């Protein structure tokens, strides 16, 4: 709510492509609908043609909630960065909450984030912790704790992503002023946060897990190999070019992060769950 007690209007932004799991997608949408503060609109970007099952889920939700959904159709798969870039522009409201197609938002997620924006008009982005699960939502494997304050976020961002992308709510104008999402293999959000930091955006995290995030061995398979090493080096080069890291930090980050990308999946899983959480 805003300072006068009125409900704040906001959009939820979701990108989806053909390989998403229909059952997970349906559960994710239900969690967005079943909030203590219901979104004013839900923007779904179809990143290329979808399967019949995914299209049917979207159509069923549109029938159940007329006028709530705004569907953006991209003619071909462009990847998450460009899909979200298009979605941001189409969102009707200043506040936008990100949501993934296979995660579960806890019922009070949006209400608690909106309160932070209501309490501090200067805030540009609010994230939260996540709980990572595999299989059933109550099978929690780990929690990803992130820094809470502006100063700690800045320091942490020099080494790692300071936000859980699936939890963030941000101001559209702040995202656009920082250049919107840019295409990357996997770290389009991290690159955006750093550019927002360089623009002196006000950012914070809530010290509570408000999203349940699916994880597992398949995630680690996707995040290893030479293509991810190249992406890490490219990202660090951009950080260096805009003055966010110095040459020592650049070299250290490239070495450490590349080593993790080249580890066997099981060992990389241990690093993620035991050391980076």
UniProtKB/TrEMBL annotation:
UniProt entry tagged with the keyword Glycosyltransferase: yes
Start and end residues of each Glycosyltransferase 2-like domain: 12-174
GO function terms (MF aspect): glycosyltransferase activity
Pfam family, one: Glycos_transf_2
InterPro entries given in the database record: Glyco_trans_2-like (IPR001173), Glycosyltransf_2 (IPR050834), Nucleotide-diphossugar_trans (IPR029044)
Keyword Transferase: yes
UniProt keyword terms in alphabetical order: Glycosyltransferase, Transferase
Family, as annotated: Belongs to the glycosyltransferase 2 family.
PANTHER family to which the protein is assigned, alphabetical: GLYCOSYLTRANSFERASE, GLYCOSYLTRANSFERASE EPSE-RELATED
Protein name: Glycosyl transferase family 2
Organism: Pelosinus propionicus DSM 13327
């Amino acid at each position: 709510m805003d300072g006068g007690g009125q409900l704040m209007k906001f959009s939820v932004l979701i990108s989806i492509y053909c390989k998403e799991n229909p059952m997970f997608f349906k559960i994710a949408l239900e969690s967005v609908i079943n909030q203590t503060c219901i979104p004013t609109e839900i923007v779904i970007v179809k990143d290329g043609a979808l399967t019949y099952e995914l299209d049917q889920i979207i159509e069923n939700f549109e029938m159940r909630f007329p006028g709530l959904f705004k569907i953006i159709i991209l003619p071909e798969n462009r990847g998450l960065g460009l899909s979200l870039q298009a979605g941001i522009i189409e969102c009707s409201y200043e506040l936008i909450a990100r949501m993934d197609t296979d995660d579960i938002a806890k019922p009070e997620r949006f209400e608690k984030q909106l309160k932070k924006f209501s309490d501090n008009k200067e805030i540009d982005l609010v994230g939260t912790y996540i709980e990572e699960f595999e299989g059933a939502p109550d099978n929690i494997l780990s929690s990803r704790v992130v820094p809470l304050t502006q100063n700690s976020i800045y320091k942490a961002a020099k080494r790692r992503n300071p936000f859980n992308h699936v939890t963030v709510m941000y101001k559209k104008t702040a995202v656009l002023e920082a250049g919107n999402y840019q295409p990357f293999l996997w770290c389009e959000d991290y690159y955006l946060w750093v550019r927002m930091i360089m623009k002196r955006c006000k950012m914070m995290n809530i010290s509570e897990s408000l999203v349940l995030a699916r994880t597992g061995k398949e995630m680690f398979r996707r995040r290893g190999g030479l293509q991810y090493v190249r992406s890490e080096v490219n990202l660090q080069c951009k950080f260096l070019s805009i003055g966010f890291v110095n040459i020592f930090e650049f070299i250290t980050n490239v070495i450490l992060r590349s080593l993790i990308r080249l580890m066997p999946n099981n060992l990389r899983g241990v690093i993620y769950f035991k050391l980076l959480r």
